[in-house]
Input
Amino acid sequence: MSQERAAVMVEHQARGCASLGSPLYAFLLERVAQDVRAGGPCLDALAGYEDAPGPDAIALRLLGGVHALVLTGRAPDLAVHYPSMGGVFDPDLPDACWHAFRAAVVSEMAWVRDWMTRPPQTNEVGRANLLIAGLLRAVRTGPLPVRLFELGSSAGLNLRADHFRCVSEGFDWGPADSPVVLDDSWRGAPPAWLAKAAAEHPVLTVVERRGCDLTPIDPLSPDGALALRAYVWPDQAARAARLEGALRLAARVPAEVDAIGAADFLARVRLEPGTLTVVWHSIMRQYVPAAEWERVEHELDRLAAASTAEAGFAHVSFEPRRVGDEHRFRLAVRLGGAAETVLAEARPHGLPARGISA
Output
């Protein structure tokens, strides 16, 4: 039963990779699922994780570990199929890629097993597209210097989001020389409220940047940078380029990420006069146990209740929400004690976005 469940979870991720534009990973995970059912080396790699809950993303852990092998030169036969290392994946002749992948798992089982202990740490820079929009919405009502706090920060790359540049049809915001360019940030023209906010606030002043994560990554360390690169899908060059730009920014713009849970982190946050305190997060709620998320909501309510014109508060989130029978990834903003407003939605990687309300 556990073996079959693992195969089903891998197949689920394969479909996700296919829908998000990674034919390489969609193919490899289909083969991984077959190998798991056959009792092959991929089952050995996943051993002990067969019954892990979905958010543990066992397929992404496996893929990340193997990608790290490729990036460090430990799997040269597989590298020729990985675009991230200059290789080419031929979907019409995929067997060579699969055999090289399977061989890498066999020969580097200890390495792969170590990666299975690590939660996926994508720190997806594209999601900042929605977070920036939410922040611009917030400063329209509280144009004060911003104190930025992020839940589930990973390496804290998106704590530097005000240094990114967003570009779409008839719209641009952010430094013209930014190493991170979020192209095609909106489907067509952005919402009118965003265009107005961007014109009113072409530059934001952020006076504090702090985040939390149970297992934070140091983006300035070789191991940390490798982990971040390994979790970017190797046939998605635009994502990789955004990550490289964000790593360069991280070396220039300081931010702190504490190794602490979200609820305990928020419990230490207090509003300060003359500033707008913003708490944001993107696609991390699913990793937080229900009991702890109740504590997070309690702390968010505390901060909202304390909000004033002189010491403002905003909560910005880009998280999956059930809409009918579907889960959609939506931007929501709560300003002070007001009700939450859903403003936009996008695919999980954040680009492009679509406005859905005012």
